[in-house]
Design a protein that fits this description.
The mean pLDDT is 89. Strands 1-2-3-5-4 form a five-stranded mixed β-sheet, with helices on one face. The chain has six helices and five strands, in the order ααααβαββαββ. The chain has one domain. β1, α5 and β2 form a beta-alpha-beta unit. The protein is α/β, with parallel strands linked by helices.
């Protein structure tokens, strides 16, 4: 299944780390290639290959209720890049065009690194979305406006806008 943004696809797969078979396959590849001993803060090519090749059927994608929770995403990055310091984002998502592949998404959080500007308009097309958290920036203004127009309430605190139905 082709995605517009391969990094978004990898992030979706990272959301599946509770799947024992995915975790076991990642551990096997990481052990086989000495990733635990590698001091790099970049995604190892063999680990990237597992994320790129992991099956994402429409049925599996339909099980997603949330995406991008900061704490869970940071833990997932720390799992696949053991020496990751948290200083930079090795998963810079450039497009959320594939959000429509997550038809049952109810919660979305994208705080990124504060520098990445992403058109998050696809959020407004998610029928079951009930909560979103984004940086309160001019770049995200269109999606905030679209979600408010669709009946969401917006609250702002510390540079983050939370939208809820």
């Amino acid at each position: 299944m082709d995605f517009v943004d391969q990094t978004f696809r990898r992030a979706v797969v990272l959301e599946l780390l509770s799947d024992p078979s995915l975790r076991a396959e990642l551990e096997r590849v990481m052990d086989e290639h000495g990733v635990h001993d590698d001091e790099s803060e970049e995604l190892h090519p063999e680990v990237a290959a597992v994320l790129d090749d992991w099956e994402l059927s429409p049925e599996r994608l339909a099980t997603f209720k949330s995406f991008g929770k900061v704490e869970a995403f940071a833990a997932a990055i720390g799992f696949v890049i053991p020496c990751w310091s948290g200083e930079h984002n090795p998963f810079r998502i450039g497009s959320f065009a594939d959000l429509a592949r997550l038809p049952n998404l109810e919660e979305f959080e994208f705080l990124g690194d504060g520098e990445t500007v992403v058109d998050t308009i696809p959020l407004s097309a998610l029928p079951k979305l009930r909560k979103a958290r984004l940086y309160d920036t001019a770049a995200n203004g269109k999606v905030v406006e679209a979600l408010v127009g669709a009946g969401f309430r917006a609250s702002r605190q510390d540079g983050i806008v939370t939208l809820e139905r």
